[in-house]
Amino acid sequence: MQEKIQDLTIIGGGIMGLFTAYYASAFVENVTILEKATTSSNNKQAASFSYTRSIRNDYLDPLYAQLAYEARGLWLDLQREAESPFLIECGCLNLAKTSITPDLSTTYAVQSYEVLQQLHLKAEAFDHDQLQQRFPQFEADIARLDVEAGLLYVPEVTRTLLAALHKRGVRILEHVNVTRIVQRNRQLVIHTNLGEFTTQKLVVTAGLGTNGVLERIENCHASFPLSPDRPSQAKYFIPPANKWEQFTSEALPVFAYLDVGIYGHPIYADKVPGVKIGFYNPPDVKTLNTRIQDVHSFVEECMPSLLDAEYVDVTEVDQCFYDLVADDNFILGDIPDFPNVIVGVGWRGTGYKYASWIGRTLMQLALQGRTVYNISRFSPHRFTQH
What we know:
- The chain is of the alpha+beta class.
- The protein has 2 domains: 6-48 and 155-228 and 323-383, FAD/NAD(P)-binding domain (3-Layer(bba) Sandwich); 92-147 and 231-319, D-Amino Acid Oxidase, subunit A, domain 2 (D-Amino Acid Oxidase, Chain A, domain 2, 2-Layer Sandwich).
- The chain contains 9 helices and 21 strands.
- The strands form 4 sheets. Strands 1, 2, 9, 10, 11, 12, 20 and 21 form an 8-stranded mixed beta sheet that branches. Strands 6-7-5-15-16-17-14-18 form an 8-stranded mixed beta sheet, sandwiched between helices. A 3-stranded antiparallel beta sheet has the order 3-8-4.
- Helix 2 (62-79) crosses helix 9 (355-368).
């Protein structure tokens, strides 16, 4: 029996690929995902692996802030299909302290708050005393709360998407090695270790493997300046039993001091062992050289309520790599000379929260030829050599 021609094939079954298939399956019947490893939430080498991920709108760039808020609405739509909630709306608190960042007006907390206000998104401001009343876990001079923010519980997200794709008849093939892709008339023939697949449209969401996929497309010369990155340090802080409730998502928001590379998540139910605190220098933030050089110095300076906590490494998160792009913008669109090949990559360690919007946008570009959003800034053609 001859292989049915696919309306859409997706190479890469991480969160971006799953969401692309999710939206595509509402429009066309024949959708296939080709994944080199596994789509399971236990794939600890995937960039989209984790237990919790931040979902927030508090970006310095208004475009990214607006798109994050768009994505939030789509996450809430998907959550209606989930067996249990995966979006925990506990807010995201940005901190700043004069002894660490003397000019508070230039801190991430203040500047991102101004962007939220410009976009008319919900946000709250705290001075030191107000912060002590609302969130006594912290020691800081000011704080700004992105209200419509929180965390995503990744295993439930993956389960929900896989269940929806199974119900809709999306074919998912794992442990697939793509060896060659050939343009044949208006279709693409994908050669793999599992045989050949013919497709009308192709979406590539292969993370750091994207250039490797593009190299396999006959007569394709597109290549993107991608580099790997990952958190420098991540630990779970396990508070004493008598203080446990102070650090759950009912009492503690997601938090960050991005000027010095710190982010953190509260304890969510019994899903994680403690408060997760990470140290990472995101490329869109100029991290200052201060005495906060790791998660422990952050706890000493800004979260002394955790000084009596035990701590363990978050080894799983440290194993995943992010795909960074040279100009620090997403890559999203068709590739030169191949209008039926759409690529999405360059999520820079911040992409997970955008996955719902990215998946829908990739679907729109592949199946509808356009999107309602102005994403010219993300065009893959910006890397075309003239």
